[in-house]
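Sharing a chain and its predicted structure for anyone who wants a worked example. Both blocks are below, sequence first, tokens second.
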Amino acid sequence: MRLAVYDLVGALFAPVDPAPSRHADKLFMRVRSIIKDGFADPDFCPDEAAARAGISLRYLQKLFTQRGSTCSEFIYSFRLDQAARLLHRRAELAANQHLSEIAYACGFRGYAHFARKFRHRFGHAPAARPAGYVHARQQPE
């Protein structure tokens, strides 16, 4: 009898299989699409993503936790990737677009926050060109 109780208690506290199900994978892909569509809005947050997906915030958090991330990190990742693309295009075209305009276009409320996140992610300030960068019109010698 004791062994049966120990087995039952062990089963209750055993780690849950962290592998997401196929349903969870499909739902995660839908959430990714929602984030991709909404990341440029500075008011877009995990609460908004959960509401648009029709799931609870807790379940949304669980979907990201199973993949080793958070929804907020994911949103910032989309914002920063878009900013990097716009900065690259700005450099290629030698455009005079203000960096704060790029920050706002990518969903950041202010340049200082954007610059801090960008530097943390890419290792250099948004205005700086990474080592080894060559302008398209300038050929390496």
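Comments welcome. The two ends are 81 Å apart (CA to CA).
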